[in-house]
Amino acid sequence: MMMIRKTLALLLASLAFLWTAIETLAQRPGPTAPSAASGTSGPKRSGPVSNPAPTKTTARKSAGASPIVTWAEQGWTPEQREFYHYTSQGTVLMPVEWFMALEQPPTDFLDLLNPFSQQPLLSNAEYLSRFGLLPSPKSALNPWGLPIGLAVAPDDSPVRGTVGTTCSACHTGEIRYQGNHLRIDGNQSMADMVSFIESAYKSLIAANVSAQPLSLGFRWSRFSKRVLRKSYSMESDRRLRQEVAAFVKPFEWEGFYSTTLGIYPTREGYGRTDAIGRIGNRVFGTRLQEPKNLHVANAPVNFPQLWDIWKFDWVQYDGSVAQPMSRNTGEALGVGALTEFLTADGSPNPAPGKWATSVHFENLEKIETQLQSLQAPRWPRHILGEVDMNRAKQGRSLFAENCASCHAPRPVLPPGDAMAKLAVTMMDADTIGTDPQRVINSSQAQYDPSKLLGVPSEKVSLTEGLRTVTENTKNWYYDTVGFTPEQRGFYDGFDRPNAVAFNMKYKAVPLDGIWATAPYLHNGSVKNIYDLLSPVNQRAKKFWVGLSDYDPVYLGLGPKSNDMGFEMDTIQTGNANWGHEFNSTKGPGVIGRLLSHDEKMALIEYLKVLPELPPNDLPAVPLDWLGPYSMLAVPSSQPLLTEVRVEAGTVTVRFDTEVDRTYQLESTPSLGPDAFWRPVGGTVTGTGAPQMVTGLPLTEHQTFFRVRAE
Questions:
Q1: pTM, entire model
Q2: How confident is the model over 78-105, as pLDDT tens digits?
Q3: What separation in angstroms does the CA of 695 have from each of 292, 402, 445, 462, 658?
């Protein structure tokens, strides 16, 4: 009787999790041909054409015509492009044989209960294209014929044979216009990755439910025979049942708590995800099996473009991470890389084993290095029309007047330019006036690291927690392969320190290729450049985001032409379209004067060709990575740290078996060896007055303290 109760409980829990998410998928129909009523019929265009008038509906390809797929010229060879698309980061969706054998998730509750119901395969290319995943043919690096961004881990990976997402899934874009599909590497993908991953796990959990004793098991039987093929037997089937049941447990846990606690109330949809929120929830919630570490993630952001990203001193929309390897490690952990934080029974693993991970650091370094050669896309005149260069030159003057102070390149002075080429402009959230939910969430999030550290601990900020995890997982790999300090610095990227700082700011970057990255603002709440240059009350409150045609007139999203997308509602939390406003009034979020229609159109024309008519550089600045922050490094060989005291510009560190040791803050204008606190003899006054000291054990090699100095 107890076994029956447990089985029924498992079935009900799995069914409940599946059903909470199935309705959305069931309401999302497949690709449809544009209807005549939408004004989409007409002959296919060939050759250059002029831009249409703003009020004119542009003709599109006739229904059923094959799209013309081309790649933007960005300085990559086809071999480099394929490497970017199909090189594993060590993330794990599931074993690739399972993925190819699974049926699509049940379409409704009756389908889930019906043992005789059979769905097409999950890996069906047409089905995957519903999520905006870009199809690609089989090749040497893609023998399974997976869409761009789904990569299979190689034999040298601890998770070999598993399929996972790589950065190209979210950062390979496609602009559609009149039957042309222009693909752009490093661009925002118009994919609904959240729904795709949820659907994959719904399919696997449905198969697992079908494997339970009280189920007739037809769905499971079909799946098992596809996976095992000639090796199918009762014994191999039993082992597969056990493997699948163990594999889905974390995702059943995650799905249960995410649903019951309402963790993701704002739909992310096509082209967006709450990246930082999901990384925090996956790392500190799911991987630690700690429900109290799950935080509401209601601040989706666009997938950002990647060209020139390696040049910037800070990345992420809130300028929160400096080191390339730290950024990429956090991303990989957030989208499925495995960890060993806990043992099989849920207790904390001891160091250094607890920092073991499936992240493929060698591939991360290779991908990051290749991105240094990726160029911004040029305006495709043969597809989107010619450019009025006289109007573009007028727009260049308007750009210098209204935009350059934030968006023109800001070089880094030597010697800091050995580590970063461009310094991004950081704007207070109140000043720029855009939706603050992203920076509120990340700057206020607190996590209990007790299971991670193995001892009861006070809560830590996302800054401290994320740096702890990324630094330790990196060092676990570096120690395992025996890297020298020089090799560690190379893999980290330009010898950059692992600086992490979540605060109430957003960053501004140069705008080369910005025409290809709609919708705009960090949360994708503005549909085109024209609206972005307008007062807030003139911006669309709702608009269609998805796989529709591009608008080459206003530079942005065109009207809905099929059902592959979702309606962006700027009233929802995290979706506000405020700020970055050009208006005749003054106030928070108003950053420039009111622009006329002609002025806005001239700026638009200039943004099409900005790389051809680049703005003048802003004055060069020193590299000041940590701003008012620096780091105190205490060698782990020292005895137990018992006290940190800040007085008169110095930090005094007391250990349990030695006298006080004093540390001095050296100059910070150019980040290098002198930017760190270092032990000195006697009492020496630092260059700033430290205001705050917070600490957390970070690595087996040293303990870092972040010290605020005004």
A1: 0.82
A2: 999 999 999 999 999 999 999 999 999 9
A3: 22, 42, 17, 13, 20
